[in-house]
Design goal:
By secondary structure, the protein is α/β, with parallel strands linked by helices. It is 36% helix and 25% strand. The chain has a single domain, classed as Rossmann fold. It is built from seven helices and seven strands, in the order ααβαβαββαβααββ. Strands 3-2-1-4-5-7-6 form a seven-stranded mixed sheet, with helices on both faces.
């Protein structure tokens, strides 16, 4: 069965496609001018964001990690030349500070222990973090407007954390310095730098 991420990125719904396209451009824009040679996406799923960022920022060497082996298999078929592996955000098989940029997009809201997940992302980055989460309550309201997850009041069944934009910035600020933020309805995007 296709993951919710795969269904989201391959939807024929023109509004959903527009929103995802705007999100991808906003994520890429936040990275403008950032010096990166090695980048890691944790929770890369089927590799849609890696593909987009690789196209917008050529020359960056990418690796993707996800807990879902089927998603990694899909990503391998569509991202030749990108190293992809299964892995756990709580215990990444990467040395400390081994990437210039670590990305976790639409991941932290799925974690029972988001502080521990963020701590591991901070550990493996040498400098930057690009993080995104649903901007609540707008994400839930958008789901309700589409008639999705009505019995859960619009909350995605896999989401166990919920942040508004200010709350997410506060959460990230406990472990890194925020450099830039961007909104792309209904998501919050943060670029942060590891404390020296």
């Amino acid at each position: 069965m296709a993951s919710t991420n795969l269904r989201k990125h391959t939807s024929a719904n023109p509004i959903q496609r527009l929103m995802i396209g705007r999100f991808m451009e906003a994520a890429s824009g936040v990275l403008a001018g950032v010096g990166v040679s090695r980048a890691l996406e944790v929770g890369c799923g089927e590799g849609f964001l890696i593909r987009h960022l690789r196209d917008r920022h050529p020359g960056w060497q990418w690796k993707g990690v996800d807990i879902d082996g089927e998603a990694i298999g899909y990503a391998r078929r569509s991202l030749p030349g990108v190293t992809l592996a299964t892995g756990d955000i709580y215990a990444l098989a990467e040395p400390d500070g081994s990437y210039d940029l670590v990305v976790a997009s639409e991941v932290l809201e799925h974690l029972a222990r988001p502080e521990d997940g963020l701590r591991e992302l901070v550990r493996v980055t040498g400098r930057y973090l690009l993080l995104s989460v649903p901007h609540e309550p707008w994400f839930r309201l958008a789901n309700l407007g589409r008639g999705k997850y009505l019995s859960r009041l619009g909350n995605h069944p896999e989401h166990v954390q919920s942040w508004g934009a200010a709350a997410f910035r506060s959460f990230v600020s406990r472990q890194a310095t925020i450099i830039r933020t961007a909104g792309s309805f209904p998501w919050t995007i943060v670029l942060a730098e590891k404390w020296k």
